[in-house]
Amino acid sequence: MFLAVSGLLGGVAYYRYVSVSHLTPTSNPIPRSTHPSPTASEITLISVYDNYQVEPGLKTSWGFATVIKTPKELILFDTGGNSEILLFNMRKLGISPLSIKKVVISHIHGDHVGGLEGFLEEND
Residue 9 above 70 pLDDT? Predict the structure, then answer.
């Protein structure tokens, strides 16, 4: 599976996973390095929606969302089940919805996409 850009919703890029049905083995495997890439950068995962309270003062509910913080951008991975809880927790953690320009959705279940519409309205 790989990620493909599908378009924009409310100015935010959205992506879809594309399934690969067949891979052909090669006789020339790609060499693997045992050292970190000099161009690799650190990322931080910030849980903004979960069944369990990961930070004091955050609201909990069935679902999942996390912000992926890179040196260049913030990416929202899933949107939880409720936009009010998602946006409350983001603000509580000091993350402005307007700072998110990319959203990745893992799969279309309510506990992973339920907050998308409200997030996009806030981000517009």
Answer: no
